[in-house]
Amino acid sequence: MIWISVLALVCLDITAGNEIVTCTSIIKLQNIQRGVRLHSHEVKYGSGSGQQSVTGVTNGDDVNSYWVILNGSNKPQCKRGEEIQCGDVIRLRHFTTHRNLHSHTFTAPMTGSHQEVSAFGEGGLGDDGDNWQVICSSEIWYKTSPVRLRHVVTSKYLTVPGQTFGRPIAGQYEVTAHSGISDASLWKPVEAVMFLPNNEDNSAHDEL
């Protein structure tokens, strides 16, 4: 409930500076190539897994594009404000539906050579298909550093291939997992509520 009150007060533009991405921070991730934000909602796929769909949207104001950064499902929960290092395995929990960013061997709904990405689990509980490794070029994930998210189970990268859906989510972009490495699999944090690293005052950055 603290996160909800903070989010109502704070929406930070974090494109400047070299701050560190930290555990339990609430972020939006923007795809470098397509310019869309990683998004989910209470709309299920009509094929494949039938799980909650994950898409990319251009609207920067939608609360359904917020995700909470947590440790991977096979590790103890990281502490609030703990830095995320390149190579760490994380989960991204959808802020409003509390399901985890997930992938598996189901075929993507439109791009048949890719695999489906969904939001999975109830109340944040899921499985190993929710684990994503942060791939970046520095030791620590900085907010100015684009990253790739590699699905641990299948070794595919979170990607926006460019296809868009029709109704009921017309114009939203398909999000998939794929082995190809390109700008379509690069992501950067944009709007966020960030918590400071443990060696600083452990509170929301610029909290009102």
Key phrases:
single chain, Trefoil (Acidic Fibroblast Growth Factor, subunit A), mainly beta, 7-stranded antiparallel beta sheet, disordered N terminus, 208 residues
Could you give a short description of this structure?
By secondary structure, this protein is mainly beta. The chain has a single domain, classed as Trefoil (Acidic Fibroblast Growth Factor, subunit A) (Trefoil), CATH 2.80.10.
Could you characterize what this model shows?
The protein is built from one helix and 14 strands. The relative contact order is 0.25. The chain has one domain (2-193): Trefoil (Acidic Fibroblast Growth Factor, subunit A) (Trefoil). The chain has one helix at residues 2-9; strands at residues 12-13, 26-31, 37-44, 52-57, 67-71, 89-94, 100-107, 115-120, 132-135, 148-151, 157-159, 173-174, 176-178, 187-193. It has 208 residues and is mainly beta. The longest helix has 8 residues, at 2-9. It starts with a helix and ends in a 15-residue tail after the last strand.
